[in-house]
Amino acid sequence: MRVGVVVFDGVKLLDVAGPTEVFAEANRVGNTDYTLVTLAVGAQAVTSSTGMAIKVDADLRDTEVDTLLVAGGDRLVGRPIEPELVDAIRDSVQGTPRVCSICTGAFVLAAAGVLDGRRATTHWQHARLLAKSYPHVTVEPDSIWVQDGPVFTSAGVSAGIDLALALVEKDAGGEVARTVAQSLVVFLQRPGGQSQFSPSTSRPRPRSSVLRDVMDAVVADPSQDHSATRMAASASVSTRHLTRLFHAELGVTPARYVEEVRIDAGKRALEQGMTVADAAREAGFGTSESMRRAFVLRVGVSPRAYQQRFRSTLR
What we know:
Helices cover 47% and strands 12% of the residues. The chain is an alpha/beta fold.
């Protein structure tokens, strides 16, 4: 299988090195047959984000591959992407069985129209800009990686490794992907629906002191009663007013924010080795079944499956 990685001046080096190491390791340990080529508009070497040169194997405009992977780079965000690159991507995806982006590479796919009508993700810092700039794209800012048909997009930098492992699993099976992950000393890929960051760090700090106090109380003890009515009463505001604050400053309902915090707390409890039942109580879900439903919906896996992948080895 021929995998083409699209590079350009300023490309993030880890966006290139991480996924290609996964494919190369799969060839070594899993009897796969990935052929890796670096592609660019023109066939001259490019300079990566670290200043290191990356050799280009072929011109993007003249090369057919089975998987096209567009790496990211800071210069793709907040400024026009050169038309030559966008046009080359638009032409290259025609007939390509699988198209992927790492991090801000999603902006190139979006500019080429590849993501129109599809779900996608990118680095959490740039997800809002992607959604604003390309309204025909449904951006999922919390996801590690997203598949929509033959198009795959991933979150920032190291998430490219997760996506590459997912592709290896689809191509060669779970055992090969697991062996690759163990060999590279990384987690067997995080499920695509797993949040990139905890809600306490990924949400902007609100301007409203009322909302800040409410959020701090939820994070401090998610096991308490944090219904909208109870939170509003504690803040001495109406439920309607509190709901408006959440929508205006965070873009979520009070209930959704509480659920996010509880999922984050549940993850930490599971990583520390708690049973699912104890983790559910610690995080405020009450029952194992309530926690399981929330994890399957928001994280993409059950609490038990999450714990098997992420439980700390520390004793």
